[in-house]
Amino acid sequence: MATTANAAERRDALVERLFMDAIGAFDLLSVYLGDILGLYRALADKGPLTSAELAEAAGIHERYAREWLEQQAASSLLELEPSGDTRRYRLPEGHDEALLDSSSLSYRLRWQEPHPSNRDHRSGPSAARRAHLPAGLDLGRHRRTPRKTAEGP
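Request: output the structure for the sequence above.
Response:
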C-alpha cells in the first residue's frame, strides 16, 4: 500500500508542476506579445488605460487589447485601477524596470533578442505564418530592429 500511495503522491506532484509550468509558459508568451506590440510601453508612457485606449495607442484591435489586459491582471503582471464602471489597467511600480528598462540588471526580456546568426527571425513571421494571423494582429509591423553587433550585419 505504501508504494501505491507514494506513486499517487509523485503523480500528483508531477501533474501540479506541469500545470504550473504551462501557466508560466502562457505568461511568457503574453509578456512577449506585450513587449513586441508596445503594450507595456504605452501603459508606462500614458498611465492607466482602458482596453480601447491601449488598442488605439498600440494600433491593435480592441478585443486583443482587452483579452491581453485581462490575462495580465489575472497573472498580477498589471493592476486593475478602480475607477467606477470603467476598467483601467496600470503597470505596477517596479514592473516597468523589469519589462522596459533594457539598461537594468532586472530587465527580463533579453531572452527574446534575436541571435545575430538567426537571420530568419529578424525578418518577422514567414508569409505562411502571417496568413494565419487574425486580422488586427500584424506582428510583422511591430518587430524589433536588430542591433548591430561585432559579428553581425
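Strands lie at 79-83, 86-90.
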